[in-house]
Design a protein that fits this description.
The structure holds 2 protein chains of 2 kinds.
Chain A (H helix, E strand, L loop, with lengths): L1 H23 L7 H8 L5 H36 L11 H14 L5 H23 L6 H25 L5 H9 L9 H25 L2 H6 L4 H23 L5 H13 L3 H25 L8 H19 L2
Helix pairs in contact in A: 1-3, 1-12, 2-3, 3-8, 3-10, 3-11, 3-12, 4-5, 4-6, 4-7, 4-10, 5-6, 5-10, 8-10, 8-12, 11-12, 11-13, 12-13
Chain B lengths: L2 H14 L5 E6 L5 E6 L4 E3 L2 H9 L6 E3 L17 E2 L2 E2 L1 H6 L4 E5 L5 H9 L4 E4 L4 H15 L2 H21 L6 E6 L1 E2 L2 E2 L6 H8 L2 E3 L10 E2 L1 H7 L3 E4 L8 H6 L6 H4 L3 E3 L2 H4 L6 H18 L1
Parallel strand pairs in B: 3-4, 3-7, 7-8, 9-12, 9-14, 14-15
Antiparallel strand pairs in B: 1-2, 5-6, 10-11, 11-13
Helix pairs in contact in B: 5-6, 6-12
Classes of the chains: A mainly alpha, B alpha/beta.
């Protein structure tokens, strides 16, 4: 366990410094000294607004979103025992996207869009749950197939909405679909959820480890598989729905962060889940910082950067691990 | 040769040179000359702006169909539609047998219109980037449709109105201005864009005028750092102040502190047509109010 706390300690330090970095740089130039003076309660009003009202909530939101997605991805991979599983594989982001895009098409903004996205995500979760659960005989592959087909249905609806919307609304919709943290306002519900799910590892970690090896073994070792699987599914869905509500469908974090960490740290869920929270959060904080500054004062959607950063890193780790 | 045969020869010559359809060629925004049989009788407009310019040129009666959202002037709303600007229904256009199609560089899809050109339909492209471009577009459309007089009167009225505004606000003290085009993502315009030119005309100083992209996408942070003295937007619809209210969260902004948050009528200022003169006048008045509050 000592190795675990060291790994988590290092990750925690990296996360903290990345967050500090992210708060210090942006299109307005502030020095690290300025940042510290603001964080300790001094600094000009403009600096305070920039850091406390714009950058800090955004950085925290990015961290929470990345963390939630990575943990949700790790849970899905355990649940489906499929390395290609990510938080969106069961159609949840599609449902959220249809909700958000419909709200945007109706011309509303802000909270209504997030609320509608959350409702869409929940609808999709229950739809997949109901359909996969329906006849009684249930397997992860049946859940996966149901989810993938429901996702395809959402995809068609998204395309339909994009095709029917007036041109001036398209940039906003595309930014949502690519994942964009700039609209995020209050990061705290998501952060609390993230901490809560990391604590859940203590009661659930051992059972998850067993489940990852296969349901037969898990049942043989006294784990009640079906309730555990549904708990994991509902939990992962809730995390993903929260993340998608904050930042739209940010791709890739939920797929590659768990894999990266398994390549480096091994496959113990008691370590992987909190490590995912830290590493996923850090990746998204870095990506969002880049999205804000590469062509400042213009902005890119963060989803573009996560993929650009994540793909080469992941390929490198995969190559090295052979 | 008998007189009779001479007459027959003359008749033949006359018939082979029909008097009605003399060809005329006019350069469009691509600097390509668009040749039509003069005057064109069946025009299809492929953007709301083009529709307005055609009606301004006096060619309203010759417009047989328009693109979606062509809501001005009122007569245009009753015309058949041939789809959204960026997704045209080519079949609907072909069925109308137009002898001229008026397209818009920023909105229409070039591959779609290449198909129309390949089928022999002349396409006149518009790309208004300056007030002079707008006036010239009206004139050229008037030439093609046989309303030279109307076109030149409207064009010169427009340009003299613009010149008058330029003179009136030449010495006005510059006001640092942020114009918000859209909220999510946050978008503005640079100095090359027509709204940007209107801001300069009124003695405004666009805080993002120097950016390279015509319609840059920004962070709210960039706006806070630029600290504009006035924030102006067209909003989503007329009289929709929601985007302005969002800036109230930052009382440190000069525009918020001096209560310089203004709406201008989007249909006047956001369309490159002759109504832009009225839009520019409104914008100038708004900036004048802003000056008084600083």
């Amino acid at each position: 366990m000592r190795g675990y706390s060291r790994a988590l300690g290092v990750l925690g330090l990296v996360s903290l410094s990345c967050m500090l970095l992210s708060v210090s740089i942006g299109s307005a130039s502030l020095s690290v000294a300025d940042t510290f003076s603001v964080l300790t309660g001094t600094g000009t009003p403009l600096q305070q607004t920039l850091i406390l009202e714009l950058r800090l909530p955004r950085t925290l939101s990015a961290f929470a979103t990345g963390g939630l997605l990575a943990v949700a991805g790790a849970l899905m991979q355990v649940l489906l025992r499929n390395p290609l599983a990510d938080p969106y594989v069961l159609g949840l982001s599609g449902g959220a996207a249809v909700g958000a895009l419909l709200a945007m098409m109706a011309g509303v903004a802000g909270v209504v869009v997030s609320g509608s996205a959350f409702a869409g995500a929940l609808l999709s979760t229950f739809l997949v749950f109901g359909l996969a659960h329906g006849t009684g005989s249930w397997t992860p592959s049946r859940l996966l197939l149901t989810g993938v087909v429901v996702a395809a249905g959402w995809g068609a609806l998204i395309a339909l909405i994009l095709a029917m919307s007036p041109a001036r609304q398209l940039p906003g919709m595309l930014y949502w679909l690519m994942g964009d943290i700039s609209p995020a306002a209050n990061p705290f519900p998501a952060l609390i959820l993230l901490i809560f799910v990391c604590l859940l590892v203590f009661p659930l970690g051992r059972s998850l480890n067993v489940l990852a090896r296969g349901p037969m073994q898990a049942a043989a070792l006294g784990v009640s598989v079906r309730p555990l699987e549904w708990t994991v599914y509902i939990l992962a869905s809730l995390l993903t729905a929260t993340a998608v509500t904050i930042a739209g469908s940010v791709g890739f974090v939920g797929l590659i962060v768990p894999h990266m960490l398994r390549l480096v740290l091994g496959n113990d869920q008691r370590l992987i889940l909190p490590a995912c929270a830290l590493a996923g959060g850090t990746l998204l904080v870095l990506a969002d910082t880049l999205a804000r500054v590469v062509i400042a004062p213009e902005q890119l959607p963060v989803g573009v950067i996560t993929a650009l950063l994540g793909v080469p890193t992941f390929l490198y780790l995969l190559h090295r691990s052979r | 040769m008998t007189l009779h045969r001479l007459m027959t020869l003359l008749m033949t010559l006359l018939i082979s040179f029909p008097l009605t359809a003399a060809p005329i060629c006019v350069d469009d925004a691509r600097s390509e000359s668009v040749c039509v049989s003069y005057p064109v009788e069946r025009v299809v407009s492929l953007s709301p702006g083009a529709t307005e310019l055609l009606f301004s040129a006096g060619a309203g009666k010759q417009v047989k169909a328009v693109s979606a959202w062509s809501d001005y002037p009122r007569e245009a709303t009753t015309l058949p539609q041939v789809g959204d600007s960026n997704r045209l229904d080519l079949e609907a256009i072909l069925v109308l047998k137009p002898d001229l199609v008026v397209a818009w560089v920023d909105g229409n899809s070039a591959p779609q219109l290449e198909k129309l050109e390949a089928l022999g339909i002349p396409v006149f492209w518009l790309e208004p980037r300056t007030f002079e471009d707008i006036a010239r577009a009206v004139e050229h459309l008037a030439w093609l449709t046989g309303h030279e007089d109307t076109g030149s009167v409207r064009a010169s009225e427009f340009l003299s109105g613009i010149a008058e505004l330029r003179n009136r606000y030449r010495g006005a003290s510059p006001v640092r201005t942020f114009y918000q085009v859209w909220h999510q993502p946050l978008m503005t315009i640079n100095d090359e864009e027509l709204i940007g030119r209107a801001i300069q005309l009124c003695g405004g100083d666009n805080v993002f005028g120097h950016l390279p992209r015509l319609v840059p996408r920004l962070s709210a942070e960039a706006v806070l750092e630029a600290n504009p003295e006035v924030i102006i937007t067209g909003g989503v619809d007329e009289e929709d102040r929601r985007w302005l209210e969002q800036w109230q969260r930052y009382p440190g902004l000069r525009a918020v502190a001096s209560d310089n948050l203004f709406l201008v009528s989007p249909s006047l200022i956001q369309r490159p047509t002759l109504r832009m003169l009225a839009g520019a006048e409104e914008l100038c008045q708004v900036l004048e109010q802003a000056r008084a509050r600083l």
